[in-house]
Design goal:
Immunoglobulin-like; alpha/beta; 8-stranded mixed sheet; 21 strands; 23% helix; 5-stranded mixed sheet; Rossmann fold; 11 helices
């Protein structure tokens, strides 16, 4: 066999690839194409949304056997709106790569296994304090709002050559892209936001006020069935400021947790309604919320015996007002890091016997723990005035204070963190049922 025929045979079998191109010839189409796109894949963790992975696209199917965790470096901002000033947004750190595999779309594989595809999925360490997507939006007063960053700072560097699938499954395969260790590539595509992208937008207008909201229906939603409804009332910073739609779903876990069995401990389908508030005063906002709920219950297949509300911080004021105004609507509530109920509201809640679980951080730096203790006292007094025993009150009112060690991120105002990480609280709330009228 001649040398020329031997080389041709080896190349056809994928056992030999060219690494140099004569000066008179142009590079191959694969080499010229290189990386086709970079897509960020985000996920909402306990304390908010962050980039969980990047999907790097090539022109042809990638050979996963040539990839390892050093093939790419992913860097991102260290900025966290809870702790850092906006000036820290340009500060970067390399993310820790946990898994790398191929897929036929920019999506995660639950087992991290490679499938035939032209996307390389680079999964990142969720525990690392980097890659958060939520940033400060506006500061009309000393209090600011937040939004999802429309221009994610995530960047990717390809540090090793990436090869295509070899024709006979032998060897590295054709070169798809040479290593470019000195070149950072920005995100080029719209992010894939796990669960968040599944929420639908709506708005409710009454009395000149507009209430924007997002809602999530079960995947196989059936109008003939009846589903529990979880109303998620966000904190002050997630209120509507004209530029931050959907942040109430992305900024922390309370909206998306109810869609995931690993949080709820249940495979039961739940409808989630996540309104934003206008921050014009809780009585007016609560009135608008109740009107929205009445309409929502007409439009969707909700089990009216199982309408719940869960709150973060400022959202507690809406809950207290809404529960007092229309106690017939609700089967239970979870209040985290909130304001205190007043005596009139407590009396209305006790009269309706709405089950509540109240949680608060002992060293909450924004809303003092005494607010939660006042809520506990007023509700207990209201139940006692109605003749309830201590045992009966315990079934209707649960209360938890969290020491600093309970928080997986040291934001001691965010009592929803340890509350949601304790799955028993979510299971308790979903198990409440309002008596049939």
């Amino acid at each position: 066999m001649t040398t020329r025929r031997l080389i041709a045979t080896l190349m056809a079998a994928g056992l030999l690839t060219t690494t140099a191109t004569p000066a008179s010839a142009s590079p191959s189409a694969h080499t010229r194409a290189g990386i086709q796109s970079v897509t960020a894949i985000t996920k909402v963790y306990t304390f908010g949304q962050k980039v969980a992975a990047v999907a790097v696209e090539y022109k042809d199917t990638v050979n996963p056997r040539t990839l390892d965790r050093d093939t790419f470096t992913v860097s991102d901002s260290i900025y966290n709106f809870r702790f850092n000033p906006p000036e820290d947004l340009p500060k970067r750190a390399d993310r820790t790569v946990t898994r790398i595999y191929t897929n036929d779309e920019p999506a995660l594989d639950p087992h991290g296994r490679s499938g035939r595809g032209r996307y390389v999925i680079v999964e990142l360490d969720p525990e690392q304090n980097a890659g958060w997507t939520v940033i400060v939006s506006k500061c009309p007063t000393f209090l600011c709002t937040v939004k999802v960053n429309p221009d994610l700072p995530t960047q990717v560097v390809q540090r090793k050559d990436v090869y295509g699938k070899p024709g006979l499954g032998i060897g590295k395969g054709p070169l798809l892209a040479r290593a470019t260790p000195d070149t950072s590539r920005k995100v080029t595509e719209k992010p894939v936001n796990l669960l968040v992208d599944e929420f639908r937008y709506g708005s409710y207008l009454s009395g000149g006020m507009v209430l924007p909201y997002h809602y999530h229906l079960p995947k196989n939603y059936d109008p003939a069935k009846r589903y529990p409804l979880m109303v998620v009332l966000p904190g002050h910073g997630m209120g509507w400021d004209g530029d931050n739609l959907l942040v109430q779903v992305a900024a922390d876990i309370p909206a998306t947790a109810w869609l995931q069995p690993e949080w709820t401990g249940s495979t039961e389908d739940v409808i989630v309604l996540a309104p934003q508030h206008q921050r014009v005063g809780s009585p007016a906002e609560a009135d608008l919320l109740v009107k929205l709920l009445d309409q929502f219950l007409k439009d969707f297949a909700v089990d009216k015996r199982r309408v719940y509300a869960t709150t973060v911080s400022y959202g507690s004021q809406l809950l207290w007002n809404a529960f007092a105004k229309r106690p017939d609507l609700f089967a239970g509530g979870l209040v985290t890091g909130g304001f205190a109920v007043n005596a009139e509201q407590a009396a209305a809640i006790a009269a309706a016997e709405i089950p509540l679980w109240v949680t608060h951080g002992v060293h909450d730096h924004l809303l003092n723990i005494n607010l939660a203790r006042t809520t506990r006292t007023l509700l207990r007094d209201a139940y006692t005035a109605r003749g309830k025993t201590s045992e009966q009150i315990e079934t209707l009112l649960r209360y938890t204070e969290y020491e600093d060690t309970a928080f997986s991120l040291p934001d001691y105002h965010a009592a929803y963190g340890p509350a949601y990480e304790d799955g028993s609280i979510l299971r308790w709330l979903l198990s409440r049922t309002r008596p049939q009228a």
